[in-house]
Amino acid sequence: MKKEFHYFLTAILFFTRIPCPKWVGHSSEMLNKSNRYFSLVGILVGAIAALIYYLATFIFTPEIAIILSMIASIWTTGAFHEDGFADSCDGFGGGWTKEKILLIMKDSRLGTFGVIGLFSILILKFSAIQTLSVAHINIPLLIISGHAISRFTATILLYTHPYVRDIDSSKIKPTTTQMSTKSLVISFIFGVLPLFFFKNYWVFLSLIPLLITYWYLARFFKKWIGGQTGDCAGALQQVAEVVFYLFILVLWKLY
């Protein structure tokens, strides 16, 4: 149990800006095994964003509250996944070979594809949540669920696809080793846990579009670069989060 707690703190250390004790290590083994708590970190990040949203609604409009909650989640993670999504947009948008795609994704500068992609997905995320805010949906629970289930979706990619970037030059060390089945199961448990708190269990149908999203992007990554990188996982997390919100919106329209 002590080791598992250490893995969880390592996940917090790596995936967020939340301060951790100095004794928390970040060896290759610790970083790789910390991926099993990716979804739990999502619950934590989502809870922070949800709390900001809830408190902000006492003072501001729902729209401003949503923006503040999005800013809170971005600040908490240091835009970790948004950066991966933007880099992926630049890499796959501007590169036509594996080597060129990986080179562009490694570049810290943001290009046209990255700017347009990041702007589009943030606007889409805001619009989906804003629409659901007037639909008697529990928005704090929605935010927590979106962060958790989208991170589980990203961990499937780490489980099924090999890491393709050179380890020594990589900025995303934990993805250098594929996840174990045990880690994937743990990630799944925490990923779906918030869904049990919805009154309508139709919400579990969201796993279908999320798996389709995973399948499509995983196939796309495999075709162009032969596997995945940390940026690919970050991109999948962002897309999966938006897909989750949009599917809940579709359920609300239907039911």
From TrEMBL:
Naturally occurring in which organism (per UniProt): Polaribacter butkevichii
Molecular function terms, GO-annotated: adenosylcobinamide-GDP ribazoletransferase activity; cobalamin 5'-phosphate synthase activity
Main location: membrane
Cofactor(s) listed: Mg(2+)
GO annotations of cellular component type: plasma membrane
Bilayer-crossing regions: 37-60, 110-129, 135-159, 203-221, 233-252
Pathway: Cofactor biosynthesis; adenosylcobalamin biosynthesis; adenosylcobalamin from cob(II)yrinate a,c-diamide: step 7/7
Family: Belongs to the CobS family.
Biological processes, Gene Ontology terms: cobalamin biosynthetic process
E.C. designation(s): 2.7.8.26
Catalytic activity: alpha-ribazole + adenosylcob(III)inamide-GDP = adenosylcob(III)alamin + GMP + H(+); alpha-ribazole 5'-phosphate + adenosylcob(III)inamide-GDP = adenosylcob(III)alamin 5'-phosphate + GMP + H(+)
Protein name: Adenosylcobinamide-GDP ribazoletransferase
Keywords attached to this entry: Cell membrane, Cobalamin biosynthesis, Magnesium, Membrane, Transferase, Transmembrane, Transmembrane helix
Job description of the protein: Joins adenosylcobinamide-GDP and alpha-ribazole to generate adenosylcobalamin (Ado-cobalamin). Also synthesizes adenosylcobalamin 5'-phosphate from adenosylcobinamide-GDP and alpha-ribazole 5'-phosphate.
Gene: cobS
Membrane topology according to the record: Multi-pass membrane protein
Pfam families (alphabetical): CobS
Intracellular or extracellular location(s): Cell membrane
